[in-house]
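DATA CLASS: polypeptide
GOAL: derive structure tokens

***
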Amino acid sequence: MTRFGADPRAFFDSVYREAPPWDIGGPQPGLSALLDAYPPAGPVLDVGCGSGDLAISLAERGLPVLGIDFVDAAVVQAREKAERLPPEVARLLEFQVTDALRPSLLQRRFGSVVDSGFFHLFEADERARFVDDLAQALLPGGRYYLLAFSVEFPPPSPRQVTEDELRARFTPERGWRIREIRSAEFLSRFAPVPATGACIERLPAPHA
């Protein structure tokens, strides 16, 4: 995450102490549309959960959700939002400060992993490690839902994620099936950004 300076944690902590431009008061519509088209199974892991809007929307669907982020200020905001929810929704939510690049370290497996603007923060080598780790965190048949910028910006902004990259990283030979890759938008408080949306499924292990 070198695009965000020598101390990315401090960079994002300072952003969350103000008003992140991507914090639009709810989940990204582009990702919600994918979740509607390919209904997720629980339990759900929200990687890079930020202030919790996506996780909350999934709990409102009746799914148990764990949101993880390495930014303390973001997780504090997410927990505060959860405390204001009806008890039947709040009990489905959990938020932790931890490294979302290493979901397997949670030693839990998930029916779905959702990613709203997380994967696009990283360089190629970090993305490769995340995909390997993601494979260990998903249950067979589990799905990974992604929304990421599809255009390149200079630092300190995300890197683009293209359809070609996703097809190269998530191959059948590596145990993945791409359900859909679509063009979308990533909304912000300023202007929408062209985005790539994807639903990718973890294949069951072949029988011996």
